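Deliverable D5.2: sample structural annotation.
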Amino acid sequence: MPEQIDMDRLTGALRRETVKKNVAAIHISGKLTLLQRKLSNVLLLNAYDALTSAATHTIDARTLAMMVGYNSNDLATLRASLRALAETLAEWDMLDEQGRQEWGVSSLLSFARLKDGICEYAYSPALAQKLHDPKIYALINVHIQRNFSSGHGLALYENCYRFVRTGSTGWWSIEVFRKLMGVDGSSYYESFKHLNAKIIKPAVAEVNKNSDIVIEPEFRKKGRAVTDIRFLIRENPQMAMFQIDDSEGVRNLGVYKALRGQGVSDRLARQWIAEHGEDYVQQKLDYMAGQGDVKSSVGYLSAAIREDYRPPDRPEPPEPSPEALAAAEARAAEKAREDREFATRAAERAERARKFEIVEALVSRRNPTQRDTDKRLFMAGLEGELERENFRAHGWRSGLNAAAIFAFWEELEPDAFQE
């Protein structure tokens, strides 16, 4: 099992502010593919709340397929992935609360079964206890793991993420690192040259491009041979991109529209606004407008934002006239009104996100028969084909049907959405 498991639906007590360094080391002996690694994360997410209190756990096979990101009809791949998890060993070696050494080993899954569209599975009691211990695992966002296209990249992310608060993984021997990446036992990767070129460099690039952390490897040598590796870790400011509700708010801002009018891509425009703020970006747009024609608007704006271009110092301007003061006050009032509207939209987005999280929790507690009934009942109440098609595509996360979804579940659970 990966060394940190989080899914974005885990909230509250499951999230902690700090992660202690070197609390535990749990390694896997098998060579999990990207799909199998994602599957193990989703299964743990589904079981987490009842990990130590329930002997077995169940999840609808279609829900499992949706969260992992593969064809829900491809049961052969699902069976093969579950078999791989049952055949893979997890090994831990750590100090307990009294400082005594503890070693243990267990299969990742003690059993798995597919029957009538339901996946049932279990962890050994010893491994379940370790997986549930919040001191061992940091929390990983299930949306972020979907961005990875290689198992080595996701494995490196999982093994680095729990150290984000400490800023470094600490030194791992190259032998331990090969094991974490699932390439131990390969004669090809006994060569550090091959390990660096094929595993370390591509995995680091993928983590830095697709996740909420930025990592940098450092090496320690004995003579000319590399013996140890560690990763320096910092939070990725572009993570704000994962949190933006792109359908509202940012795309309605005047500064966003101005950036798009200058040829800035949608992603880059949202990134600049998220990282630097609306006012700062608008200042750079205004500055560029005062420079006349520029060869490349996007290139110039990028440099202006990065280098903080500002107009040169000028003599103190004369006292403004009453008319100018009145106009400035009017602009300030308009800006305050826009700020209030933006804050209101932000609060509405946050409230909607909160309610969607509650809906997911409510759905997760329903058995498969109830879930099917809920969907049919809700679909029957939708008026247009557009709304029904959007619900078929996005399920209970359908933004087009948000109000209807909340009303539906509020009727079933009257107090569900109360703070």
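Annotation notes: The longest helix spans residues 322-364. DSSP finds 17 helices and nine strands in the chain.
The annotation will be released with the project's public dataset once the embargo ends.
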